[in-house]
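Self-study notes.
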Amino acid sequence: MVVLKYLFNVLVFPGLLFSALVGLLLSGLDRKVVARMQKRIGPPIIQPIYDFFKLLGKETIVPRAASRRTFLYAPVIGLLALVTVTLFIPIYKYTAISTVADIIVILYLLTIPAVALIMGGAASGSPYAGVGISREMVAIISYELPLVIVLLTIGKHVGMALNKGVITFSLSQIVSYQAEFGPMITNWRLIPAALALLLIIPIKVGSLPFDIAEAEIEICEGPLVEYSGAPLAIFKLNHAIKMFIMTSLFVTLFLSGKGTGILILDIVLQVLLSAVIVVISISTLKAITARLKVEQVLKFFWTYPTALALISLILVWIGR
């Protein structure tokens, strides 16, 4: 029974099937909202699902100069890491796996899809992929610092209340704190950290204006330029799942609470809040902002999100 339960968690809920379906729907919502903001009709919300299965049916072409195994396995490695992350993110009181250091685990696992993208691009042997790889590395350098500071801020704030000032790295404790004292977003000290995370979500997902690695018009999708068929479908699925993971993580860190006490209703509430974050954090920026250059991205994240996260960390630290 324990084995069946873990298989269900990994393959169905909250793992592969659930996160893939919700992620693809959120991706479709993003495209639809951006189209409406630009006074276009836009594709149906379920269009990413159609695109995914269409790509699965296409022929997979491996470049002659490519390292075949790395080229084909890279998207799968990224997918496995993302599915594992979904097991650690609570949906209010429900979580498939809970540890005392799941924030650290999530932080490391969320880096793997970016590394897999770099590996796949490098294995393709394309010069366009090489340009995208260097840009993906710059993106990782730019957003990891403010993301770590945001997580430290939340951990310190909860630790002061529950662990006698010791920073907590447990998402279950963060959820329990909010169930007792209310959502983090209502605490004025944490609002700058919330704003920082809203700015981090688009680049972590790889969306405009921070899609510097793919840059479809400029460098023909960068690391993905040589991908086709099922491997490309998996990379696109990774993008969608990452969108759900990052928005769901925001909900857990800042908007969690007691919930309804009924799992199905809590799931619906989590997905709806994730959809709201997609519109606020990804769609709005995409509709009003042109794509940033590499040096602009690095300067932006080392200035604004980092500053906002540091402000919250200082306010939390001195507010003991």
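Second protein, same conventions, sequence then structure:
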Amino acid sequence: MKEVMAILRRSKIQETKAALDGLGFNAFHLYSVSGRGKQKGILSEIDPPMGEIISERYSEEATYSFIPKRLLHIIVADEDVQQVVDTIIRVNQTGYYGDGKIFVCPIKEVVRIRTSEKGKEALK
């Protein structure tokens, strides 16, 4: 099993959710996070623009130390990792700074508390 963590644009979350749901991956967690990458939080270097909420509050020249993003966590079987990663890339890749990052980490064990099921059975 693997944990796939993806830092994504807020504007792409609904499309990402729909794409994962369409593949049968409907169990995941989503967090609001803030961060910055190579652009160092400079809004004028983000293209496409970060959206109406930020553009209404900040001028083009203004800097924003941390950009609001979403962090998606999903645990999948080893054989499903590439499909999930490819889907996240397909939906979120714009070619501009701020598209995000994907991290894949090994998971040693999963236990469903309610039933004590372990491993792949706990993911179903």
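Instructor comment on the second fold: The first strand starts at residue 2 and ends at 8.
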